[in-house]
Amino acid sequence: MTNDERTTYAYLCIGCPLGCRLEVDEDSHGDIVEIRGSSCRKGDRYAEQEHTDPRRGVTTTVAIDGGLWPRLPVKTSGEIPKDRVLAACEVLRRVRIEAPVEMGDVIVHDLLGTGCDVVATRDMARMT
Amino acid sequence: MSEPMQDVVVVGAGIVGAAIAHELSRNELAVTLLDREAEAGFGTSKANSGIIHGGHHTDTDTLKGRLEWVGNQLWDPLCDELGFGFARVGELTVALTEADLPALDHLIENAEEKDIGGVEVWSRDRICAAEPQVTRGVIAGVFSPHTAVVNPYEAVFGLVEAAVANNVRLRTLSPVTDLHHDGDTWTVTTPSATFATRFVVNAAGLGAAAIAHMAGVDGFEIRGRKGEEYLLDKRLRHLVRRVIYPCPTPLSKGTLVIPTYDGTIMVGPTAEEVDDPDDVTTTTAGESTAFAGARRLVPSLSERDVIAQFAGTRATIRGDDFLIGPTEAPGFVNVAGIQSPGLTAAPAIARYVADLLRHGGLEMPPKPLLNMIERPVHFASLTTEQQRTLADTDERYRRIVCRCEFVTEGEVGDAIERGATTVDGLKFRTRAGMGRCQGGFCATRCIELLSADLGIEMSEVTKRGPGSWLVLDRPDDEVMIEPEAP
Amino acid sequence: MIDDRPHVLLPNYDVVVAGGGPAGLGAAVAAREAGAERVLVVDREAEAGGILLQCIHSGFGLHHLGEELTGPEYAQRILENALDDGVDVLTNAYLLDIDNDQNLKLLSADHGVAILDTEATVLAMGARERTRAAIRIPGRRPAGIFTAGAAQRLVNLNGVLPGRRVVILGSGDIGLIMARRLTLEGVEVAGVFELMPHANGLSRNIVQCLHDFDIPLHLSTTVVEIHGRDRIDKVTVAPVDAQMKPVLDKAWDVPCDTLLVSVGLIPENELSRELRLRLDPVTSGPIVSSTMETSRDGVFACGNVVHIHDLVDFVSAEAELAGGHAGRFALGARPPHDNVRLQPGKNVAYCVPHTVTTDQPHTVYMRVRKPLEKSMLRLRDAEGDIVHERRLRYVVPAEMVTLKLRPGVLDGFQGDALQVEVVPR
Q1: Superfamily in which the C131-263 domain is placed by CATH
Q2: For residue range C331-353, what is the model confidence (pLDDT) as tens digits?
Q3: How far A83 CA sits from the closest chain C CA (Å)?
């Protein structure tokens, strides 16, 4: 294999404020052949993860009736594939629940088949 | 919709129209006050510098020169009646060069001619002792004890509220689209109603020429002269105690340093001829001009202390005098070209216009009894005992909405009951959002309260009327879901 | 978290804390743990927790609690902790005034106007956002200009949206977080504009809030004019030259109906000014000793009211210190005064605390003026001799520098002032 068949992808490291500009070279089979630009091992691991399977935790709100506020903050119980984030929010924009809710209550099971639940990130009592 | 026959329709609810409506409301008359904006005073008046001038800056050979001092003297009873912020802080016009001295002499002459007492020349030493922040370069000054500061929007709201309490009908969002005269009746058309009336008073400010034209009255043109103002942080309270004026130029009184009624310092106004009377932009050039001018008077002033900037456009006509009087159209009275000292003169203008209407054949039997309005509560300035009593009787006075200016929910609720329909209307009535955070904390709270008290959605609340929406509803289409414990 | 039980107000307290955010709640718990019995937290909102309640994103608590939480989770944890510890939390209440004898005047939805007495006070009112006026953008005053925090409250608590197409001025973390937040809510973010040649937020937020959604970040560019009569309809933006002056002939217009201003925070010091506390002109917060005591005896301060922190974790650490000392002060402890002033030297904007003692360990927070790689933090005495130094890998103004002074470090030091500098190695 020659260098000519490599494709280079750029990432900004988020591990620390240094913000290293990372480069990942991929061969024609999609395998990583080189990671450059990091100042630490954490950076290399981040570049690999971000290149092969970028994931994000999602935080947003859902509609709630009967609480102090009309929105309840929620989060995914783990990280979901980055390319599903917008779809996940699309789903959650259509959710409406009723107070009371407790922190940790599951609002949506197995969001979009990602294996992650959506849970409440605060209590919200029912207002009398 | 057609309305009952009116004696007078006043077009424009700025300070001038409001003062006229208030003056007329003392009599048994059917009066309607129209304004194109969402609330009274939302045109040029809200951006006024808020100075009741001492009366000695104008010559007696002009109409404004004659009305200024009379108006100055009418403000105290108005303040007693309506309860707006008003304080006679006095003024100093300062000379910085020998060339300025004739201007000081002229002020003294004006005062003598109008028989205004108490206007006196101050030496450099006396100025430096009384106003230590004024430039050491000052050589002399003229002091007047009669100059006052006022919150101009509060004055407008007070005048309109008292007028309405005495049966004046206020119609906002009512731009006049047509005027028609037939016999001795005028028909005034707005998008939502038509009014039949004997007299029309044209107090439309920047729109006065257009209104006159609808009435078939031409012969004058309104030119906009923009003034930018810069409001500084409250920590500069008492930087100066009196309004500080430079010696005037032909175009304007110059940039002043104003200790506002609310205890902040304001720098301005600039004076710039503008083609678009609607141009109320603040500009980098305007800021430089205002501060350069102000720093000549008070060198320690800095742009860094600005908490708000705004501009208003003076409605000027050729010759720069007021144009007040009957016209060739019977029953149509112009009150146009009311620029500085228009605020000062407004109560005098109102009486002058009432006299004109009387001479024009309008009978004005005085009302035997006038309805008085309740003075607005300003919680922060009450004593602890007064605060306790109020908080005990009305729990809305136990919650703070605006923490910079210390405004309670009670004051906001009261302002809405008195007619505030917009966030700016609340701000001008209560000061909520006028402090150093400029609404960062309380604007959302004000939107919530307007929404709750007016029974409208938050998305229907506006900053200052149609088009100035603040927030949008979410476009969602939700389905109920039951939460489960983990 | 609403407590339905009727609140009982006592005539006197050991410690009263102004503000129920992470600083105030943390200080209250520490005061209790130091032995103060009657500890009252006064918060102006309907529920305590402070600004964290609207910061629904995660990234809180890694240092202080050892796990990454969202803002509301962090708030609920510390509030439950405070209530469990016997702290009295009064919401919908506002501290109006403190006199020289520590008599407090309170306005409370439950109690109306109340006067109460305290042995010690902790100021923990947090910060407010700088506004459009603070950066003096010319133009009109249409509707549709919000600080990023105000927009965050509208979206996350009130459940409404600030507009359809948004321009964000300032690349601080709040601005970046709101760029993502609005995008997730279906609002178009036209771009983020930053006056400085570098982004002010964490690189994590640059990546996850901007890059993830292809939101452009324009560095060395600023908003030079606001347009629109009733509602904002566009902004004019322009690149700036090396002196930060806009280059107007390279300006362009960006259509938008909303401008979010995210140009920094300033300590909320209305009460501090009422109290005539000595303030630091750089931080805009009170000058504090190593016990977080202000220039008034028995008045302590912590959190963003003292200086702006990057992480809530540091706020919590500072709150523990302030609250502990306030609690001990209430019980009569009067530790000896600090004997060394810390003076910001080369490339240091400020240090907190402003004074230390030579015989105690201290954590000193500071902010640098310019970014540096491979730098050295040095303490110098009046003669310029180095008393202590530490290598730093990199420093940026956006990230607070922390110096842990262990006991013994200043043992031999005899002077009364130390210059603190962060310089290239």
Answers
A1: FAD/NAD(P)-binding domain (3.50.50.60)
A2: 999 988 999 999 999 999 999 99
A3: 9
